[in-house]
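Preliminary data (for renewal application), calcium ion complex.
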Amino acid sequence: MRILIVEDEPRLQRNLVKALREEGYAVDAAGDGEDGLYKAEAFNYDAIILDVMLPRLDGWELLERLRKKKRTPVLMLTARDGHNDRVKGLDTGADDYLVKPFDLSELLARLRALIRRSTNQTSSKIEIRDVVLDTRARSALRGETPVVLTAREFAIIEYLAIHRGEVITRAEMYEHLFDENDDTLSNLLDVHIFSIRKKLGSEVIATRRGQGYCIE
Ligand code: CA
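Predicted structure:
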């Protein structure tokens, strides 16, 4: 999952980027509304965390312009718990809100819920053959045995599982699983897939030669 954070307060932006990367998300950041809108339009993010008060273009304006083109799920960060702000957000097309200051654990929970809703998952557990992925705990079981996956490995299998039945191209996987700071060596994805198959069984992810990967 690749997330865009649009937040102008440098310390909060840094902390959010760090926390989300630790959870296995690929994360891009923008420090003003114009850069945020540019990135939101240029890439297909799985969700956007959007501050309301931003230089150059505020969060409402950004959201209004984005909604003319895209339905990317948006979690707004609002400084005031004002009723007007919430109504305005609903009208503009925000998907959820969090009032500053907030707990990081709450932000992470809201973000997971937002992504679950946008991908029509009803549960945080996903079964693939004898494997159970828990997207909330970010853990995996193979049969009864816990399997340790790296954050990146988990992100890859989670993305494929959410889009089960679809062939996901390598380009799409790079777009959703690696961020602007990642050094994308061309064989990196294959290395991760190899490692996931070794841990969870070779049949868990199918290769469609010349097309991409798929969970059937
Ligand atoms: Ca701000």
